[in-house]
Each structure stands twice: as C-alpha cells, then as structure tokens.
Amino acid sequence: MPVNIEESWKQQLNQEFELPYFAHLTEFIKKEYAEHTCYPKGGAIFAAFEHSSFNKTKVVIIGQDPYHGPNQANGLCFSVKEGIPHPPSLMNIFKEIETDLGKPYPKSGNLERWAEQGVLLLNATLTVRAQQAGSHQNKGWETFTDAVIRKLSNNREEVIFLLWGGFAKKKAALIDPSKHHILTSGHPSPLSANRGYWFGNKHFSQTNEMLQKIGEKSIAW
C-alpha cells in the first residue's frame, strides 16, 4: 500500500508501517481493491495526513469509516468530493455551524478547506467496500488510527479533540486530558441529532475560543 503522506506524519508513523499487523492490513486492502469496488480511491486513502503537518494539527475530528456510495468519500471523515450531495450527517454539521457561528450553509461538502487549516479529519477505518458499511472494520485500521491518536496525545500539547457519538467518545481513553482539550456530544447523524444530542453543542465556537486562548488562529469553519 503506497503511503504518500506528509513528511512529518511519515516520521511519526514509520514504525507502525513496519509492524506485522500493517503488513496483514496492506495485503487485505490490496486484495479488496483488486476484487471489489472500494472507497476512497487508492490515492486518497491517507488524504487526512496530506493537508497539514503533524505539528500544525490543531483540531482532530474522529469518524467511523468512509462513505460507501459512489463518488462520495475523499479520504477525510464526514467530507465528500466537490459537487456531491451532502449526506445527512454533513448537513447537520453545517446546520450547527450556521446557528453556532452565523455562517451561511456552504455549497461544497469538501472539507479539504478545514484540513488545510490544521483539522485532522480522521476515520477510524480508512477504507470500505462499496455499499457495505463497516466492511473493513477489525482488519487493522483501528490499530493504526489509535496509534495516530496516541502519537498526537503523547507528542503534542493543546490539541482539541471533537468526539461525536459513542464510537468516537471511546477514543478519549487514548488522550491525555491534562495536556489536551476534549469536547464530546452526540453524533450528527439524524438518529442522534433529531433526539437532541447534536444541535446546540457549539463545538465550533468553543473550538475557536480555545484556539484563541492559546494564541492559535481560529478555524474558518
């Protein structure tokens, strides 16, 4: 599996790429992509690590696995390619930004604009078989992405982690709360949002307030 990622991330994660589990994962992914339609495209599997360096990562948002519909996934959690209709969770994210920050609902669901500002949009599982949600879970990706979270926790300070929903909240166990900031809420999916667990969390304004307090530039959500 080609690992074309930004150099500082490569330095942090090189040891992971050498471990036996990653070799098994690579074989599995190669076979899946050869025999089935999988998302995102091969070149975008590690897109989350391409836009911002390890040391410039200010905010981490954790998703579960990529969108499994045609032309949706672009390697960043909750994000879709240009011109693709916004999935329900992304719509609810944008609606919360609208009410929290007074920003108009955007046309583009491509969140590369966030990634360029130091927002790591990390799915716990980086690939999926078409139309089969969760099909690449428990194959090794979670071991890798947990290592990413630990690296940030251990080797950085004052990173803001946004943990949305039960799955993401479990990742708090990997983060040192004495060095970092953790904001939790329900998931932006309609099931959770319509029960009142998402809207009004004000995570976007809270994140920017925290960034300003530590002398960092706000995110243009």
TrEMBL record:
<keyword id="KW-0378">Hydrolase</keyword>
<keyword id="KW-0227">DNA damage</keyword>
<dbReference type="InterPro" id="IPR036895">
    <property type="entry name" value="Uracil-DNA_glycosylase-like_sf"/>
</dbReference>
<feature type="active site" description="Proton acceptor">
    <location>
        <position position="65"/>
    </location>
</feature>
<keyword id="KW-0963">Cytoplasm</keyword>
<dbReference type="InterPro" id="IPR005122">
    <property type="entry name" value="Uracil-DNA_glycosylase-like"/>
</dbReference>
<protein>
    <recommendedName>
        <fullName>Uracil-DNA glycosylase</fullName>
        <ecNumber>3.2.2.27</ecNumber>
    </recommendedName>
</protein>
<keyword id="KW-0234">DNA repair</keyword>
<dbReference type="InterPro" id="IPR018085">
    <property type="entry name" value="Ura-DNA_Glyclase_AS"/>
</dbReference>
<dbReference type="GO" id="GO:0097510">
    <property type="term" value="P:base-excision repair, AP site formation via deaminated base removal"/>
</dbReference>
<dbReference type="GO" id="GO:0005737">
    <property type="term" value="C:cytoplasm"/>
</dbReference>
<dbReference type="InterPro" id="IPR002043">
    <property type="entry name" value="UDG_fam1"/>
</dbReference>
<comment type="similarity">
    <text>Belongs to the uracil-DNA glycosylase (UDG) superfamily. UNG family.</text>
</comment>
<comment type="function">
    <text>Excises uracil residues from the DNA which can arise as a result of misincorporation of dUMP residues by DNA polymerase or due to deamination of cytosine.</text>
</comment>
<dbReference type="Pfam" id="PF03167">
    <property type="entry name" value="UDG"/>
</dbReference>
<feature type="domain" description="Uracil-DNA glycosylase-like">
    <location>
        <begin position="50"/>
        <end position="211"/>
    </location>
</feature>
<dbReference type="GO" id="GO:0004844">
    <property type="term" value="F:uracil DNA N-glycosylase activity"/>
</dbReference>
